[in-house]
Amino acid sequence: MDIEAIRGDITAERVDAIVNAANSSLLGGGGVDGAIHAAAGPELLAACRALRRTTLPDGLPVGAAVATGAGALPCRWVIHTVGPNAHRGQTDPALLRACFRNSLDEAARIGARTVAMPAVSAGVYGWDPAEVAREAVAAVRDRTGTDVELVRFVLFSDPVLAVFRAALDDPGR
Ligand code: ADP
Fold first, then answer.
1. How do beta strands 65-69 and 2-7 pair?
2. Which helix (H) or strand (E) holds 169?
């Protein structure tokens, strides 16, 4: 499995699946969630509403991941995951690692070979981007045996890109 980190806008990624830092309601929010819904169009919101009506009436739990279609986005699937919210006392790194691990497992389950991931919880949810990077890289390295061939971390700013590159350069993870 190739793992890389670039600076960019995840909505423009031409990969099989992009990961969304959603909230439990799955009904849209700000940050990367807002950007993904804006670029995908109403089809994505309709797919999320359908999940709420059927398999996820109470929403998506923190740390879990679920795939939908991608509407007008250039990818095929959006994998929604809910990061822990540090402002609500959700500070267990295992929850954050679970987001990345479960997103990758969901990608493998649906047959996605190339996956782009943002810095889940490093925005409004208040986690230190360096800690997000360490958990993300550890989670992905733990899953190198799956059929996913490429994981690309797509970061929105140079400082966040730098901490992801540092985590990737650390052989201990
Ligand atoms: P959370 O609520 O999980 O913290 P946010 O969307 O607020 O999620 O932020 C997560 C990360 O996504 C932040 O580093 C933010 O800068 C970044 N981000 C925002 N928009 C985009 C985008 N279009 N592509 C990639 N990353 C983005």
1. unpaired
2. helix 158-169
Using most ligand atoms within 8 A of CB, pick from 6, 11, 25, 32 the residue to mutate for ligand 1. 32
Q: How much distance in Å is there from the Cα of 80 to the middle of ligand 1?
A: 13
Three-state SS for 27?
A: coil
pLDDT digits (tens, 9 = 90+) for 72-94: 999 999 999 999 999 999 999 99
Instruction: Please say if 142 is a catalytic residue.
Output: no
Structural contact between residues 154 and 32, judged by C-beta atoms closer than 8 angstroms? no
Q: State the total domains in the chain.
A: 1
List 5's β-bridge partners, or say none.
153
> CA dist 17 to 76, 92, 93, Å?
6, 26, 24
* Structure letter (DSSP) for residue 47: H
In DSSP terms, 17 is beta-bridged to: 77, 115
* Domain containing residue 132: CATH number: 3.40.220.10
Task: Report pLDDT digits (tens) over 116-163.
Answer: 999 999 999 999 999 999 999 999 999 888 999 999 999 999 999 999
